Amino acid sequence: MDMDIDGTDGKPYVLIEPRKLPVTKGSRNRVNYTNGESSNSLLNTFSEPKTGIVYDRRMRYHGNIHEDEHHPEDPKRITVIQEKIKNTGCLNKMVLIKAREVSAEEACLVHTEDHWDFVTKTAHMSDNELIKNADEYNSIYLNNETAFCARLSCGGVIELCKAVVDGTVTNGFANVRPPGHHAEINEPMGFCIFNNVAVATQCLRKHYNVEKVFILDWDIHHGNGTQKAFYNDPNVVYCSIHRYENGHFYPGDKALANYTAIGGGEAKGKTINIPWPRAGMTDSDYIFAFNKVVMPIAYEFSPDIVIVSAGFDAAEGDPIGENHVTPSGFGHMTHMLKTLANGKLILALEGGYNLDSISKSALACVKVLLGEPPSKLGPINPNQDCLETIHQVIRTQSKYWNCLAPVYYATEDRLPGQLLVDMAEMLKMYRTRNLYSKYKLIPVPLSDGKLGQRFTNLACCRADTRATSNSINVSNSYMIDTVYLYIETILGNNHGIIDVDVPPVVNQPKNENQDLKDLLIFLWDNLIEATNPKKVILIGAGRGCRSLAGLINERDYSIMEKVVCTIMIPGPNEVPSVSKRTDLSTWYQSNANVLLPANHPFWEKKIKREHGTCSKIEDLNNMPVQDMLVHLHNDMFSHINQILVNGGPANSSNEERNN
């Protein structure tokens, strides 16, 4: 049959009188304008996505018998989610996928037989035996129903994945517990018994002809068990966005959870970790990570199916995660993931311990799975810690993914005949020369040991009566150095200066803070103490604040004698504190001004003397540290000059400032 380019099958258009335009109403009240005849054939071309859900109330039987106090992995977690989905009318639009128990054969595609046997035996243990065995593992509880609930939870995820693969549904949400992503091959941990997502992934690959799987883990904790299960598998990408804090946040494996863990053998690049250095990360930070890393890699990998370890403990209000991802943020992440793998997307519940937060966040994801657009987000303004983290991730992963340009090289990657020069070293040399030519600042001689190797040319001085500590931000091929503004002001007032400038380094040493503190102690002992100035002012910015607080703790009596003013501008970084010792903390509270954005997570905590006098400044919200320095410059030096004239600190209490 010949068809005209206008799609009318060679038939003439039907002229329709104004105000008599025929319409047909499709699903969700979409209005379809037709050419005077039925549009059913057009509607049949497109099918509404079917969304499955797995839920079995019996999973609540896994409960805590170990202690009287409330446990965060509460059986009510799945109940409040299910009720929220039902009460909003979403459940009526979903396809119920019946959960069933995972078999030993399926579970042992990931776990050892010993692990399976141990979990099975818990059904017949006494309470004392359950408590004793649970205490031998890391953060789990057990009762006689644990094995059954864990089998049901794992089998439910498998059944939902199977339903998506065979076309019964397009996507789905597994409202299951206990969670799974911490469970390792041979042991339960972190509230997890079987690794639901890992077992389901292996079942799909073995029994359902699925070749490539993309696993995204947005739980606040790193999914150590899932990562280990696929660390050497080139056909499974494991990507985790989690709170890291240099390995101090659970599960606490510095090497495994860092961006430097990339996979082994032929699977290099198939493990991607986005490790947040602190709490307080927001929608902006997660969406930025999605746009810069997660989605580009996922598109290039082109998976057959996407499975999300959907923990909601990064949600606003979660007492453990302490991040600020909103339901809209989770909805947008789900919306982006739906564009992959022909829409084959499964969300399997992991953590999340605020019942209100998890129910609202899960509902937002379910609505997107059903076809609704996510609610509007505010402006995307990632913080400096996010930008630096994503930079490190891209630098590490760019060797394995074409979508992450430019490719970064390490010294060990240099080919014969290539000259590889560290950009930070180039900028350091330029800055040293410029500081001398313009201000006659000269590098402070350091020892030939660790300090000399790490900090040569990073500490410069002229005269010896004032000290300032600051850091710059190196981005692309530009050097952003607002400290010049401060140098000109200080030297213009005929004061001496020690400038300590330590730019971020790509492979940040594990003891970076200790090294910088040692440098400050060296400068204090060899320059300040040696020249014995009458008045000293300390200024710390960004990461340098923590090391400056360390100096104050180490040289407390000398500093209390000489320092008349301390100003800290941590930016988005953690607010440092000095020792709780009464004399030092009292001195610090009256002497130290800590200038913070109004949206810094610190304001949610109790402010103590050892934190100094903290000021809340609305105008600093979402500013990089270098911009904060420019914004605060005039007020800071007005304050400093007042102190120098009056001869002592002017602080008395914590205050709030709005400009």
Automatic annotation (TrEMBL):
Location(s), subcellular: Nucleus
Domain of life per record: Eukaryota
UniProt KW Nucleus keyword: yes
Describe the location of the Histone deacetylase domain by residue ranges: 71-369
Give GO MF terms, alphabetically: histone deacetylase activity, hydrolytic mechanism
- Keyword Transcription regulation assigned: yes
Which key words tag this protein in UniProt?
Answer: Chromatin regulator, Hydrolase, Nucleus, Repressor, Transcription, Transcription regulation
Task: Give the Arb2-like domain ranges.
Answer: 464-640
Q: Which GO terms describe its biological process?
A: epigenetic regulation of gene expression
| EC number(s) from the headed UniProt entry | 3.5.1.98
Q: Which reactions does this protein catalyse? A: N(6)-acetyl-L-lysyl-[histone] + H2O = L-lysyl-[histone] + acetate
Q: What protein family does this chain belong to? A: Belongs to the histone deacetylase family. HD type 2 subfamily.
Q: What is the protein named? A: histone deacetylase
This protein's species is Rhizophagus irregularis (strain DAOM 181602 / DAOM 197198 / MUCL 43194) (Arbuscular mycorrhizal fungus)
